Amino acid sequence: MAIDPRFFDQVGADTVEAWAKGSGAKCVGEGTGAVTGVGAASTALAGDVAFFEGAAKGLGSISVKAAAIFVSEEHVEGVPDGVTALIHDQPRLAFFAMASRAIRRKTIADQAERIHTTAAIHPDAKLGPGVVVGAGAAIGAETVIGANTVIGPGVQIGMRTEIGPNASLQCALIGNDVKILAGARIGEAGFGVAPGPEGAEDSPHFGRAILQDHVTLGANSCVDRGAFDDTVIGERSKLDNFCQVAHNCQLGRNVVVAAFAGISGSVTVRDGAMLGGRVGIADHVTVGTGAQLAASAGVFRDIPDGETWGGTPGRPIRQWMREVAWLQKNAGGKKKAAREPKEG
Amino acid sequence: MAIDPRFFDQVGADTVEAWAKGSGAKCVGEGTGAVTGVGAASTALAGDVAFFEGAAKGLGSISVKAAAIFVSEEHVEGVPDGVTALIHDQPRLAFFAMASRAIRRKTIADQAERIHTTAAIHPDAKLGPGVVVGAGAAIGAETVIGANTVIGPGVQIGMRTEIGPNASLQCALIGNDVKILAGARIGEAGFGVAPGPEGAEDSPHFGRAILQDHVTLGANSCVDRGAFDDTVIGERSKLDNFCQVAHNCQLGRNVVVAAFAGISGSVTVRDGAMLGGRVGIADHVTVGTGAQLAASAGVFRDIPDGETWGGTPGRPIRQWMREVAWLQKNAGGKKKAAREPKEG
Amino acid sequence: MAIDPRFFDQVGADTVEAWAKGSGAKCVGEGTGAVTGVGAASTALAGDVAFFEGAAKGLGSISVKAAAIFVSEEHVEGVPDGVTALIHDQPRLAFFAMASRAIRRKTIADQAERIHTTAAIHPDAKLGPGVVVGAGAAIGAETVIGANTVIGPGVQIGMRTEIGPNASLQCALIGNDVKILAGARIGEAGFGVAPGPEGAEDSPHFGRAILQDHVTLGANSCVDRGAFDDTVIGERSKLDNFCQVAHNCQLGRNVVVAAFAGISGSVTVRDGAMLGGRVGIADHVTVGTGAQLAASAGVFRDIPDGETWGGTPGRPIRQWMREVAWLQKNAGGKKKAAREPKEG
User: From CA C172, how far away is CA C187, in angstroms rounded?
Assistant: First the structure.
């Protein structure tokens, strides 16, 4: 993914050679290609640097488009032709460290004025007292921003969008007719931890957070930006308060999400799915079109289109309810059971 | 419920006739009554407009006091005498659209100054730097407001109340000796989604959020305003961080709520009830006086006074514990079971 | 624990005698010792006042170092020699009331200017627009503070630390290279409720919140300050969004905590433990070194070093999975079960 220059600055390291030099990696291949972005190994695009770690059988999935890839010595033969290998003992950490140095997120803390002079704010937009707007940000007509909300550098906001007070947005593209309630956090770094020589290290995040038209996001909810891809919430999806949408998630259209949903990294939720309160979804899971998850479900596998699941670990709701009823019946305690109506 | 003019402006549409005209509904009945508010079909008061959708058997519950009610053609005969019928193919959506146009929430984004000149702030109140106070808001003696907190238009706050930094309040009435910790969100729109012709639509919320005397609300917690009624937290109720109190909830006095409680719309929690950490309560449920919910309980039905429930779906705690123990015993794995003490 | 004068002022009551007088307690013992802090009964240090309630057998654990202790008449004989007894019908409430009067948290609402003149801000630190910094706070070199964030009086922040927008910190000591994401709340009062004559009363909190070097804390997460001790998050521990770390918790080094963790009061989590999403831990529990808790686990007892637990109530993960599989098999519904792969 090419770095979005509205949100990130590439500082110097714009060739594979520079990445090799900066990271101390041994460079096998052409080594002079232009670097314009970073990516995941399997989806890296032209100009991207990536890293590979893991079992050798995964080498086949390395993108042939990547400019360069950090790998360990033992894996160098598996790097596709045309992709420069950057050989390092710790490919992931070397990549993270170099990427963090080469790509710098623009920060609102660099500016002295509340509304940056380069921000493009439509005359019909309304900004409450204390609103801060970063360099290069854009705010459309009839959009309303609540008091003390912070719009980071480069953030683009459409028309007729309403943002509550004390919210903060960065690395974000926001559509038209969006509602973002008070205290929501959009575009923060996702959560990823890698073991390093001195202990736990944060994984950097270079993607964006995108809320399409007519999305509603509840109070104090969070939508993290992607790692190497974008986090996207599709048109007319509606999320309640306290929802967590982690890095790289893809929510479709008309997805309805009740409070306290925990949608882990790289989850896909297809159009029209409905998530009850406090649903948890493990990373990389896909929830099918029109699927429904009962309140408090914890799902660790893909949910087929149109099915309703519940329980933890999640299972088809009828199965879950059968298990609940069977257990209640068989665990005895007749008097109590008699007091319980059957629909429980 | 009459619209509270401290929080909402009624723009023009102050007769049933105007609502019919504005929404394109066919008006059957007198059609000239004054409109002063909106309500739910069953509890609408004089001057209220409401809507009815659903099975015909529900028609009997329509309030005879309502000024007018949006209904489909097939239900017009069921509308009580004296209530004007506003006939529309999509009663709910027509009502929502018209109500959203006719009743506008006052917004802090309309003002340029941090402290509005019409705000009534007691000279003994203390406001931190960056605090924003809306038009017509009132703040009592010895009340302390943390830095960068936003007090919306018309919000009334009593005496000796303490509000932390970066909180936001709107459409809210706050008593004396209340504590609201940092980042709490009070009076945001509740979560409600209705299907519309273009996809999911938000339900509008015209009620208020009320925190009575001596209430404590934890950091980053949310209390949404009601839809057509108020959300109320009774005297001396104490809520931890990350609590969600949805629209129309009624919490009694001395209710104690640990972190991550998810109290869904229109839930009633009676005096002295205690909710453990991460309790979830489905909408319209009543939790009885002095009832207790064990940590992580997910309840979908009314809880009788004084009882203790746990598990998901919630059941009396002894039954839940018996089921847990029975399952552990019968699922085998003797060696592991032996390692487990019995009190688990 | 001696009161940290950076965060709290002791107003007058600096002798045991003054505490007796102020609270109306009957003073048995020397009664003239200096009071410099408050503590829990069992861990009170020299100069501390504490309270004792409960069964008489607990009297033996009262710290012999305490300056004075509130007790009921019946327990006065159990107070250690050298500790003054402050006899009161309601020891806890008397102590809370007197402590709350005698020890006042410094508040940002007392200052008019955004950046207090006594704050020590390194010239290489960057503060975004709208940042508020309290009296006596210190911010180290190359530290970056996001817009509209509030740094309370006396808060100490190290070097190269990055704090997002709209966060708030008070009663906090923050190390070097720490990352605190947007909307995080650090150092708020913990949650504690005691029954009083008029209903529920909040327990006061006089401790601090400490984040050691290289800690990362996710967006909208909360770390409460301790009651009489500190809440501590050890070096390189990494916490996701929506994490709750309650008063007095002690997290070790390299602890990894996924979103929605609910870590109750006085929990200990040892080095290298990993908590999956939405893990709940009951108060006073210890999670052992390198232990792992599966997503959604709810644990009510100590977890041994290195073990992996899951389920609610928590049990060793193999046991939990065996129970899940056994229940699924025995509750019947063959057709559905056949559709389910076995790894679930």
Answer: 6
Cα–Cα distance, C100 to B66 (Å, whole number) = 51
Cross-chain Cβ contact B238/C130 below 8 Å: no
Which of C106, C241, C283, C319 is best to mutate for the B interface (most B CBs within 10 A)?
Answer: C319
Question: pTM, whole model, 2 decimals?
Answer: 0.96
pLDDT tens-digit readout, C176-200: 999 999 999 999 999 999 999 999 9
Q: Which of C132, C168, C262 sits opposite B277 (nearest CB)?
A: C262
Structure tokens at C66: 């305490």
Distance CA B213, CA B275 (A): 20
User: C: neighbours with 3+ CB pairs under 8 Å?
Assistant: A, B
Which pLDDT belongs to residue A340?
Answer: 43
In this prediction, the residues of chain C whose per-residue pLDDT falls under 50 are: 335-344
CB A249 within 8 A of CB A266: yes
Q: Which residues contact C86 (CB under 8 A, 6 or more apart)?
A: C16, C19, C20, C23, C25, C26, C27, C28, C49, C68, C69, C70, C71, C94
Task: Given the residues B88, B116, B247, B284, select the one marked as catalytic.
Answer: B247
Amino acid at B299: V
pLDDT in tens, B50-91: 999 999 999 999 999 999 999 999 999 999 999 999 999 999
Phi, psi (degrees; rounded to nearest 5) at C18 = -65, -35
| DSSP 8-class letter at A331 | T
- C58-to-C49, C75, C78, C195 alpha-carbon distances in Å: 17, 10, 9, 20
End-to-end CA distance of chain A: 49
Which position has the token pair 């309304």? Answer: A126
Which chain B residue is nearest to residue C112, measuring alpha carbons? Answer: B129
3-state class (DSSP) for residue C228:
coil
DSSP state, residue C267:
-
Count of Cβ atoms closer than 10 Å to residue C200 Cβ:
21
Looking only at the bridges linking them, the beta strands covering A144-145 and A126-127 are parallel
Q: Mind telling me the catalytic residues of C?
A: 247
Give all chains having 3 or more CB-to-CB distances under 8 Å with chain A: B, C
pLDDT at B89: 96
pLDDT (0 to 100) of residue A337: 42
Structure token pair of residue B102: 């006719």
Shortest distance, CA B126 to any CA of chain A (angstroms):
19
Measure CA C281 to chain center. 14
For the segment C83-122, what is each residue's pLDDT rounded down to a tens digit? 999 999 999 999 999 999 999 999 998 899 999 999 999 9
Is the CB of B193 less than 8 angstroms away from the CB of A238?
yes
Question: In which residue are the tokens 């600055």 written?
Answer: A9
Residue type for B236, please? R
B31 pLDDT above the threshold of 90 = no
Running DSSP on this structure, what letter comes out for residue C80?
P
- For residues B120 and B140, the answer to whether their CB atoms sit within 8 Å is no
Q: Does B185 touch chain C (CB under 8 A)?
A: no
**Would you tell me which residues 314-333 of chain C have a C-beta closer than 8 angstroms to some C-beta of chain A?**
324, 327-328, 330-333
Minimal CA separation from C307 to chain A, in Å: 19
Q: Which residues of chain A fall below pLDDT 70? A: 333-344
Give residue B342's pLDDT band: very low, low, confident or very high (50, 70, 90).
very low
Query: Under DSSP, is residue A321 helix (H, G, I), strand (E, B) or coil?
Result: helix
d(C-alpha C221, C-alpha C261), whole Å: 9
Closest CA to C104 of C155, C171, C48, C192: C171
Residue A29: phi, psi to the nearest 5? 135, -165
Q: Which phi and psi angles does B37 have, rounded to 5°?
A: -170, -175
Q: What is the ipTM of this complex?
A: 0.95
Measured between beta carbons, the chain A residues lying within 8 angstroms of C337 are 319
DSSP C220: T
